DNA sequence: AAAATGACTGATG
DNA sequence: GCATCAGCCATTT
C-alpha cells in the first residue's frame, strides 16, 4: 500500500476508538505517530470526508471536556452523540477514569497499517 | 515574510 | 474546579 498521509493516520486511529469510549486530541496524535500535533487532529477531523462516518465525537480535549463552546450547535451535537452510546456528559465534562480508551498497546501496534 | 488563528496542552494560582 | 498563560504547530491571511 501507499504510505498513509498524516490525516489518514489520524482517521485510522479515531476509527479504532470503541463505542462508549473517548480519547484526547493529543493521544490520538501520539498513537498516529504525530506527537505534539493535537491541533492538527482537530483540523483533520473537520476535513474528514463524510462517507468515512468517523466517530469524531469520541475525541475530546485532555481535560476530559468537549472543546466546542457551550450553547453552540456543535457542542450539543457532540454531547448527544456521546450520550447516545452511554457516555455520561455533565456541562461538557466526561469522566476520563470511566470512559477513556486504554488500548492494549501490543494488540494496537499489531493492528496498525503503518 | 510576518502575523493571526484554532475542535490543543501542561503548568500555575 | 476554573481561569490564565505561555508554548505549540499547520494553515491561512
From TrEMBL:
Gene3D superfamilies the UniProt entry points to? Winged helix-like DNA-binding domain superfamily/Winged helix DNA-binding domain
List keywords of the entry alphabetically: DNA damage
Q: Does the keyword Transport apply?
A: no
Which CDD domains does this entry report, sorted A to Z? ATase (cd06445)
Report which superkingdom the organism of origin falls in. Bacteria
Protein's UniProt name: MGMT family protein
Keyword DNA damage appears in the UniProt entry = yes
The residue stretches assigned to a coiled coil in this entry are none
Q: Which Pfam families match?
A: DNA_binding_1
Question: Which SUPFAM superfamilies does the entry link to?
Answer: Methylated DNA-protein cysteine methyltransferase, C-terminal domain
Give residue ranges for domain Methylated-DNA-[protein]-cysteine S-methyltransferase DNA binding. 7-87
Amino acid at each position: 500500500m501507499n504510505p498513509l498521509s498524516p490525516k489518514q493516520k489520524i482517521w485510522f486511529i479515531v476509527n479504532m476508538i470503541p463505542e462508549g469510549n473517548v480519547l484526547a486530541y493529543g493521544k490520538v496524535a501520539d498513537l498516529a505517530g504525530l506527537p505534539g500535533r493535537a491541533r492538527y487532529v482537530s483540523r483533520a477531523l473537520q476535513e474528514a470526508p463524510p462517507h468515512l462516518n468517523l466517530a469524531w465525537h469520541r475525541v475530546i480535549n485532555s481535560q476530559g471536556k468537549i472543546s466546542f463552546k457551550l450553547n453552540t450547535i456543535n457542542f450539543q451535537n457532540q454531547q448527544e452523540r456521546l450520550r447516545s452510546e452511554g457516555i455520561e456528559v455533565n456541562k461538557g465534562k466526561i469522566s476520563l477514569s470511566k470512559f477513556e480508551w486504554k488500548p492494549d498497546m501490543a494488540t494496537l501496534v499489531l493492528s496498525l497499517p503503518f
